[in-house]
From TrEMBL:
Name of the protein: Pyrroloquinoline-quinone synthase
Gene from which this protein is expressed: pqqC
Residue ranges the record marks as coiled coil: none
Residue ranges occupied by any Thiaminase-2/PQQC domain in the UniProt entry: 14-222
Family: Belongs to the PqqC family.
Organism: Hansschlegelia quercus
Domain of life (superkingdom): Bacteria
Amino acid sequence: MTELLTADALEAALRDVGATRYHHLHPFQLRLQSGACSRGEVEAWALNRYLYQACIPQKDAAILARMDDAQLRREWRQRIIDHDGEREGEGGIAKWLKLTDDLGLDREDVMSGRLALPATKFAVNAYVSFVKDRSLLEAIASSLTELFSPMVIKIRSAGMLENYDFITPETLAYFNKRPVQAKRDSDFALDYVKRYATTPELQRAAIGALEFKCSMLWAMLDALEHAYLYAKPWPDAFQTADRGQRQAAE
C-alpha cells in the first residue's frame, strides 16, 4: 500500500484483517463452540484466557497514560472500569473468575497465572509491551479486534450452552455485556484511527497493529491446541484430568 486510502477504504482494509485473521477461524475456537472439546480443554482455555482478560485494564491504563487530551482520556477510562469494576466483585475480570469457579478451578491457581502455558504468558506480555512501545495510533488500532468479537461471543456462548452440560448461563455471565461494550469501544477506536491515520505510512501502521493483535490471539489458541490435543502441556502448566483417559481410549 503506497497510496493514501480514503476513510472508507481504510475501514474496509481493517475489517478484512478481521475476516481473514481473527480467531473465529481457528480450529480450537471451532471445536470449543461446537462441543468437540473435552471438559479439561475447556478448563485449560478458561484458565489461560484469564491472563489475557487480566491484562486488558493494564494495557488500557498504559494507553490512557499516553493521552494528552482530557476528553480522550475520559472516553478511554471506561474500558478500565468495565473490566475492573467500580468495586470488588464487579467488572469483567470478576465475571471471568465466575466462569473459572464454575469449572471447578482454584482461584489462586487461575489468578497467579502459574499454570498458564508459556506461550500464553509470552503472548500477553507481548501485547502489553506493544501498546507501551508503539505509537498511540497503533496502540488504539490494536484494540480493533473488538469490531469482530460480538459475532464470536454470540456463536461461542450459544454453542457452549448447547453442547456442555457443565456450562450454564450464569457461568457465561462475562459475555452478557461484552457485545454492547465492544461495539461502543470499537466505534470510538475506529473513528480515531480513520481520523488520525492521515498518511499511507500511518495507515499501514494501523493495519499492522490490528494484524499483530489478531496474531497474538491466534498464537494463544495455537498453544492450547498443541498442548492439550496433539502433544502435552509444559510440565508446570495446567494438566487436564481427561487427557490420560482420552489417550487410553485411543
